[in-house]
Specification:
- By secondary structure, the chain is an alpha/beta fold.
- The protein has one domain: Rossmann fold.
- Helices cover 40% and strands 14% of the residues.
- It contains 10 helices and 9 strands.
- A 4-stranded parallel beta sheet has the order 8-7-6-9, with helices on both faces. It has a 3-stranded antiparallel beta sheet with strand order 2-1-3.
- Helix 4 (113-126) crosses helix 5 (139-151), helix 4 packs across helix 8 and helix 5 (139-151) packs parallel to helix 6 (166-174).
- It starts with a strand and ends with a helix.
Length: 249
């Protein structure tokens, strides 16, 4: 069972709540009690599956991502299956002999945000959300619009009148999101969405699940490990990377 725990106070919220902000205004830590008996074969055998979780590079590792969410509740666009390739030029420049690049631009909306958005939207819709809203300058807007359309729920996106990527805004509109330009910067748009979600029943502020999105973006390491056949050297390299990123956070 997933637990949402405030890192400052130890406060714990229900795992199926739509409110993911702590009483101190921060984000909950997402703590999973993972099922026992998981094997590499379980994840590897899903590669040839005709539907999710096997077709998704995220939900293929569902037991490590969100073990409590029913498979039928997964909202997926086959995200996460991005290529991993070498770059001789960068290897020479950086003096790193074995340098690999994971091309997250190959995700459905062209951004790594799809990795987290599939989890956030799946969770929100499973909890009863009918409208999803966010403030964004580009990537989040496109991703939320795409996954909302996939789930069959409405999306409302507020974008700052300046510093908004035209291509990403076009994606949001193409997916049918109600997109509104806001006078001011990103913080103004963010505050407006927060207020709207507080006072209008049924509108769900998608950034409330940013803790879940952030938590589940790191699952990209699992698919990297599987590509290298779960080799010990790869496990060790990924372990060092995750520990280093956790320390910075």
């Amino acid at each position: 069972m997933a637990r949402l725990v405030c890192p400052e106070t130890g406060e714990e919220a229900s795992s199926d709540t739509l409110e993911f902000q702590t009483s101190t205004g921060g984000l909950y830590d997402v703590l999973h009690s993972f099922p026992t008996g998981l094997t590499r074969e379980l994840f590897d055998n899903r590669v040839a599956a005709p539907r999710a979780p096997g077709t998704s590079g995220v939900w293929r590792f569902k037991e490590l991502v969100d073990p409590d969410l029913p498979s039928a509740a997964v909202v997926s666009l086959c995200e996460g299956n991005t290529p991993l390739y070498t770059s001789p030029q960068l290897s020479d420049y950086s003096c790193i002999e074995r340098l690999w690049l994971k091309h997250e631009g190959a995700n459905p909306t062209g951004s790594f945000k799809d990795r987290g958005m599939t989890v956030a939207v799946s969770r929100a819709v499973a909890a009863g959300a009918e409208v999803l809203a966010c403030a964004s300058t580009g990537n989040t807007a496109a991703s939320l619009a795409a996954y909302s359309a996939r789930a069959g729920v409405r999306a409302v996106i507020l974008v700052p009148e300046s510093s908004t990527a035209t291509g990403k805004l076009s994606q949001a509109v193409a997916y049918g999101a109600r997109t509104l330009r806001v006078r001011g910067g990103f913080d103004v748009a963010m505050n407006l969405v927060r207020v709207i979600s507080l006072f209008y029943v049924g509108i769900y502020f998608s950034m409330k699940t940013f803790d879940i999105m952030h938590h589940d973006v790191w699952q990209a390491v699992f698919i990297i490990l599987s590509i290298f056949a779960w080799a010990l050297w790869a496990v060790w390299a990924v372990r060092k990377t995750v520990v280093r990123q956790h320390a910075r956070a």
